[in-house]
Design goal:
Elements (H helix, E strand, L loop, with lengths): L1 H39 L5 H48 L7 H37 L8 H14 L6 E2 L3 E2 L2 H19 L1
Antiparallel strand pairs: 1-2
């Protein structure tokens, strides 16, 4: 019992920490988007505040990109293994006799919920990074000096690269992956059972 509770504690903390990091990074992108949009709406003392705020935004954007690189390197392979094991578990539960389904409801719910949460939060991260790229372009760069234009161009160049987390360095983690995987599992189970 101690071994099982320890394993449960470690696995749940692993998943919760990764989900927290994903949502936190998406929220940081949203805050940067709001700040750079607000910067574009400034009308007074534009030149004085622009460089200071722009340097702050660039530094925070670099921190976010560093966090994403770390997430990719730390969680790519374990996420791929987790996706494969969840899909396999969902498929195998379908071959259990109908009267045994109540015993496996929690396993099925766990696999589906975790798979969906990963895909949803990674999709939110991708969407927020795209919104940030649009906000950088709409920040009023045409009203600033050449030095600030170069800084904005560099941020825009980095913001236009898609932020996509990959499971096992192969499968993009997003809602399309969730939907297509569920569809493939449904087709597989339908063919095998009937």
């Amino acid at each position: 019992m101690i071994q099982e509770s320890t394993i449960l504690f470690v696995v749940s903390n692993y998943h919760l920490f990764f989900l927290f990091l994903l949502s936190h990074t998406a929220v940081m992108y949203r805050l940067l988007t709001m700040e750079i949009t607000e910067m574009g709406n400034l009308t007074t003392d534009y030149d004085n505040h622009m460089q200071k705020r722009l340097c702050n935004i660039i530094k925070r954007h670099q921190l976010i990109l560093g966090t994403i690189r770390q997430l990719r390197s730390l969680y790519s392979k374990p996420l791929g293994i987790d996706f494969f094991s969840n899909a396999l578990c969902i498929c195998l539960v379908q071959f259990v006799p109908v009267e045994e389904y109540p015993k496996f409801v929690f396993v099925l719910l766990y696999c589906l919920t975790l798979f969906f949460l990963y895909c949803l939060l990674c999709q939110m991260l991708t969407n927020e990074s795209e919104k940030f790229g649009v906000a950088v372009y709409c920040c009023g760069w045409e009203r600033v000096n050449l030095k600030e234009k170069k800084m904005i161009f560099e941020v825009l160049r980095q913001a236009q690269k898609p932020v996509v987390l990959l499971a096992a360095d192969f499968v993009p983690v997003n809602l399309y992956t969730f939907a297509s995987t569920c569809q493939i599992i449904y087709k597989f189970v339908t063919v095998m059972k009937f």
